[in-house]
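Ticket #4471: structure output looks truncated?

Reporter: J.K.
Steps to reproduce: submitted the chain below (287 residues) through the standard prediction queue, then opened the result file.
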Amino acid sequence: MWEYTEKVKEHFFNPHNVGEIKNPSAKAEVGSLSCGDALYLTLKIDEKTNIIQDAKFMSFGCGSAIASSSILTDMIIGKTVDEAKKITNQDIADELGGLPRQKMHCSVMGYEALEKAIANYLGEQEPEEHTHDEGELICTCFQVTDATIARVVRENNITEVEDVTNFCKAVGGCGTCRTEVEDIIKQVQAEMALEKQQGNGSSATVANIPSPRLEKPKVLTNLQKIKLIEETIESDIRPGLMADGGNIELIDVVGNQILVKLQGACSSCPSASATIKHGVEVRLKEI
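Returned output as attached by the reporter:
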């Protein structure tokens, strides 16, 4: 069970600045209704002073998404555009007294909406949402590139795959990209360690050596097979489902047939069959 601060609860149950500004100076829409998270932000800005006079939002998502959007509008009203540009997703989370790591992507969505709205006001090219940074596509389920993953790891000093999922949803679907994400984390952490050493005047170098995978025995007993399936579900599949309010239960293993059941939000999701076929099934076939 996730722990929420009183401020998160306050902004969820009594959100501020809900709605839409008519004829806004700036507007932005991020996220996707089909993915369960979407935010529409509108701003009224004094063109002479560049001060944000009003901000309103409409959000489709969980309580953390609503609270993040609500606190963001409070934070930017009265600030100049230049001041608002300096706000980060971590600032949003900090203003709420913190968010569970599994819900940090909600603050990222607020940050992206603000970034996009300001670009809209300034007449600049609106930035792509950070799940669409240029680079090699790593997570096909959520369209996350290696550049996005590397940026998220660097900005938040991430060392665990689960935290990458929390911030940008990569590995949150079928989980087949987990090894690639682990390699990116190791590479970025190695680069950061080297930069820190160089900053301290050290000439030491850092090598990035991927850990070799353990070879699985060619023939498994039924108990070994069940244990391997349970471990794969626990490490590669369950975290992504839980990030979206769902879960999965292993029902039985009959020969080469694995029976599972989706739970929570995933059980009633319109994409449940796709999650099983293209996510769970693909990952379990690899073991």
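Triage note (M.O.): checked the attachment and the full token line is present. The chain has three domains: 6-127, 132-199, 222-285.
Status: closed, working as intended.
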